[in-house]
Every structure is written in C-alpha cells, then in structure tokens.
Design the sequence.
C-alpha cells in the first residue's frame, strides 16, 4: 500500500516511562482544551522543539476475539501492522476473558449466558506462535471463573500464564499453589512447554508447544474485563461473569446479585492486588491493570444519580488496588445522535466534542488517583476500546477515518497506555482475506504514516480553526510527520503552516485519504509536494486527512 516509499527504520521498540511523564501529560491536556477552543482562519503552528509525548509499542492495538478465527492466522499480522497496531488485546470481545482458561483452551459453562462458539484454531498457542509478527500483546487474565464454574478465578492461573510467556525454562521457582491445593508447577515448567515442539503423544498441552525458547517479554496484563458489569449494581449492570458471587441460572437471578459483597468494587480491588503479587512474583517487570468504568457527565446532569455507580466503583477499586497497579483500563464509545429519529450520528458534534470529552475523562481519573493512590503514583490510562457504535447511520461513510486519526493522536499525546479499536476483522477495519479496508483502518493507517515507529515523538501543534485539526511527529528516521484534518464536509481548507524550533527540507511527500477516495473506492492518494519552508500553504479537500512527510534539515 504505502510501504514502498515510506522511509523505514529498524530498531528495538522502547517505552517512554520518563520522569517528565506527568508534566507532558498536563501539557498535552492543555493543548486538547486550547485547540478545541480556537476559531477563525486556518493557520497551524508546529513547534519541533516542544515534545508532547511518544509513540510506544503498546500505543495502538487491535483485539483478537476468540470467535475471530482469522485473527489467529499469520496472514492477518501484516494488515494489523499496516494499520499501525503493534499490539493485540487477548481475549478480545466482552464476556469471554472471565470465562477463558488459557492452559485448557476452554470456556467455563456459565449458566447465565451461553458460551460462544470457538473455531478450532482459536487457541492461545496459535496466537503465541504468530505473536512476533503482530508485535506484542495485552493479555486480559481470567478473574471471573474457575474451570468447573463453582468459584471465581485463580491468581495462580494468571501467574502461570506470565510464566509461559515470560519465563526461563531453567527457572525452578514455584508459580503458586492456591488455597484449594491446585499446584501451578514452576516457572520453568511452563517456559519449557512454550519452548518445546509438540510431543508424539499429546498430553493435552501440545497446542501450547510452539518451539519458542525465547521469552516473549509481555509487559501488559489486565485483571478481568468490565468486572463492574457483574451484577453488583443491579440488573442494569450485568453480562460479565463473576463467580465470586452465586452463579445465576436464569435471567431473573441477575437481580439477586445486587450488593453481594463478593462482587463489590472493594472485593475486586483486593483481588487485583492479590493477582498482581502472584504475577509480579514471576516477573517483576510486568504492568498490571484494573478495569474501571468510564467517568460520565457532571453533577449538574439530570441523570447524574444514575451515573453515581461509576464513581463508586472507580473510587473503591482504586482505594484497594492502586498501589499494586500500573494502569487502569476504560472504554470510550461516544454516541451523539441527531434528531428527529435519533438513528444518525451527529458527526460535527462528535468531531468537536471528543477532545473536550477526553480532557474530562483524564482529569477525573487523575483526581481519583490523587485521592486513592500513594503519593506520586499516577497509573497510566488504557482505552480497551476507543471506537464508534456500529449501528447508527452515517451521513459520510469516511467519517470514522477522520475521528480515529484525530482521536487516537490526541490519546497518544495525552500519554495513554494503549488505544484499541473494537474489532480486527469487519467492515470498519479489514476483511479476513485482506482485500477490503474500512474507514477506521484508513484513519489508523493515516496516523501510522506520520507516527511510524515506537520512539517517534509527538510535538506541540496547534490550529486556530475549529474545523482543522493538526498533529505533528518528529520521527526517529529524520522526518517530520504532519497530519492535517479538514473536518468540514463541504469546503476545502487552505491552511498556512508555520514551523518553529527547527528546519525542514523544501520538498516532501503528501498522502491524502478522505471522502473523495472513499467514494471512488480508492486507497491512498500520493503526490510530491514542494515549496515547503518555515511557512508554507497547503489546501486540504473537504472531509480529508492529509499527511505530509518532510525530511528534517538538521
């Protein structure tokens, strides 16, 4: 697609965890608010000498759902990487992580919900065998259920998973023996299974024998998925299995789970700390995440009382677990609909309001962290899905590309641990055969063009127009990546670009994708661009993302 001309750079992926993280986060939040408030002529400014944040190998992700057999095939990896994703979330799809048992490749039969059908190839060994091609992974461990469905999950199972992924075959340390006597063997046992070839006589673990002696070094581990939907807050908040409480056998049983102490946020927070201790005993370098509810609204909202459960959950989870976690995971799926039938996305409002919404979410979570976490400890924020609802009508099918390109760039600039789309294979991303690419894929890919490799640094970039968004990246390969987004669906935008803090070459490369390309069924439109300098002018078509790659002079 665009790999034939994109400047390439090899090198080891690295993570930005510097001491200036907090300062840069607050600066990025200030940029979010300021950019959203501007109005007037179309002028953007880029400060090459003012770093905002950095792209890491966990910044962009796609989910691997157990029901998506194509996601386990090596043929999917190049397309995932073309989107810019260097991490996969496993298991993707809500309601499965807290039923899935990695070493058995089985799902607990939960009486309250039917288990999804799993293709034969959808086992963790298949994913691990191809993981080097995808990049890295965020693994969501089973918090909710035991294999026999009689109790909640076991920290030993999670610790053994860490041993399998990150352990040394010569490590004789025991993993964990749980309170019921289940022995999870040694770190070296699971690492040896990973390094072996399948045995002639299968002992049930051949699907995990992938001939991979080198540890994967997976750093990102989340404890449970959407645990707040376990029924503790009543029948309106169910759907995620949590057998620390009584197992429901029919629909009406969900209402009986309300306020069960073993389903409470404090109980979950305590178990998160227990999981973290067991898992970090195997590998102290890993990062542990807890699942939180997405902060909603303000006390002035009419339905504020209906949202108090989110604040209650987040506050009590963090109070019990914050000292043990490194990141907190939330979801963001804005759905602003337009009258009269409320079935069409209000694209203009989404484009203009998402930035301020991100600012509200992050500010609220930071305040929670300051109140509940040890002094100086601010967990990073991961977005397990930052996506758009699939069912509403779109006036412009190219809209998701604009929203994804801008929103994901903003989230990385604010220091997000990771940002994931809601599906790998589907109409919004790419087809199983890799022949069709959706608008969300195009939006991620346009961001990938400017922020191409982990270690590329986002720098300060501002726009004085409410319909022009801008992001800029100093790439490790010596290029400036500039992304301009014209959010006006009707009019082209003539934009004056001013670059300070460094010098750029006079010529570069331009890449466009927007509603014109979408209507034509085209991919990227590429062209040379010259006349570049510290100040130059460029016209971006209506509803289009334009990337410009410019060699840095110094």
Sequence:
């Amino acid at each position: 697609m665009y790999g034939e001309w994109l400047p390439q750079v090899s090198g080891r992926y690295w993570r930005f965890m510097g001491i200036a993280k907090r300062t840069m986060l607050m600066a990025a939040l200030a940029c979010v608010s300021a950019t959203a408030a501007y109005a007037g002529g179309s002028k953007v400014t880029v400060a090459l000498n003012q770093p905002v944040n950095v792209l890491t190998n966990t910044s962009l992700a796609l989910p691997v759902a157990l029901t998506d057999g194509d996601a386990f095939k090596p043929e999917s990896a190049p397309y995932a990487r073309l989107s810019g994703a260097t991490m996969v979330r496993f298991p993707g799809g809500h309601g499965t992580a807290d039923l899935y048992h990695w070493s058995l490749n089985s799902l607990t039969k939960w009486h309250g919900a039917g288990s999804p059908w799993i293709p034969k190839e959808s086992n963790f060994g298949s994913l691990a065998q191809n993981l080097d091609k995808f990049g890295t992974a965020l693994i969501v461990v089973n918090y909710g259920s035991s294999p026999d469905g009689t109790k909640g999950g076991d920290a030993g199972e999670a610790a053994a998973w860490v041993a399998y992924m990150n352990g040394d075959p010569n490590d004789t340390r025991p993993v964990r023996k749980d309170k019921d006597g289940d022995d999870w063997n040694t770190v070296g046992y699971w690492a040896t299974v990973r390094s072996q070839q399948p045995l002639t006589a299968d002992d049930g673990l051949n699907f995990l024998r992938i001939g991979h002696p080198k540890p994967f070094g997976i750093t990102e581990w989340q404890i449970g998925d959407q645990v707040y939907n376990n029924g503790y807050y009543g029948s309106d908040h169910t759907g995620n299995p949590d057998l620390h409480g009584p197992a429901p056998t029919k629909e009406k049983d969900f209402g009986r789970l309300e306020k069960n102490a073993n389903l409470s946020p404090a109980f979950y927070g305590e178990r998160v700390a227990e999981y973290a201790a067991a898992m970090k005993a195997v590998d102290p370098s890993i990062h542990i995440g807890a699942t939180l509810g997405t902060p909603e609204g303000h006390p002035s909202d009419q339905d504020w009382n209906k949202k108090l459960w989110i604040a209650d959950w987040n506050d009590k989870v963090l109070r019990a677990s914050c000292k043990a976690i490194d990141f907190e995971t939330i979801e963001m799926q804005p759905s602003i609909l337009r009258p009269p039938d409320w079935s069409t996305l209000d694209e203009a409002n989404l484009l203009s309001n998402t930035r301020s919404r991100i600012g509200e979410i992050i500010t609220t979570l930071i305040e929670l962290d300051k109140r509940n976490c040890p002094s100086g400890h601010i967990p990073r924020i991961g977005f397990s899905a930052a996506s758009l609802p699939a069912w509403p009508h779109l006036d412009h099918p190219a809209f998701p590309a604009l929203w994804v390109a801008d929103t994901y760039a903003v989230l990385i600039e604010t220091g997000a641990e990771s940002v994931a789309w809601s599906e790998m294979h589907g109409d919004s991303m790419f087809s199983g055969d890799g022949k069709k690419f959706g608008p969300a894929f195009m939006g991620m890919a346009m961001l990938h063009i400017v922020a191409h490799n982990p270690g590329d640094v986002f720098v300060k970039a501002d726009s004085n127009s409410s319909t022009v968004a801008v992001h800029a990246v100093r790439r490790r390969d010596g290029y400036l990546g500039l992304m301009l987004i014209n959010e006006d669906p009707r009019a082209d935008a003539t934009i004056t670009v001013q670059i300070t803090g460094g010098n750029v070459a006079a010529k570069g490369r331009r890449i466009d994708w927007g509603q014109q390309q979408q209507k034509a069924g085209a991919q990227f439109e590429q062209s040379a661009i010259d006349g570049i300098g510290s100040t130059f002018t460029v016209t971006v078509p209506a509803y289009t993302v334009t990337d410009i790659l410019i060699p840095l002079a110094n």
Q: What stands out?
A: Residues 347-372 form the longest helix (26 residues). The CA atoms of residues 246 and 257 lie 7 Å apart. Residues 21-52+458-551 form a domain with the Immunoglobulin-like fold (CATH 2.60.40.1180). The chain has two domains: 21-52+458-551, 55-454.
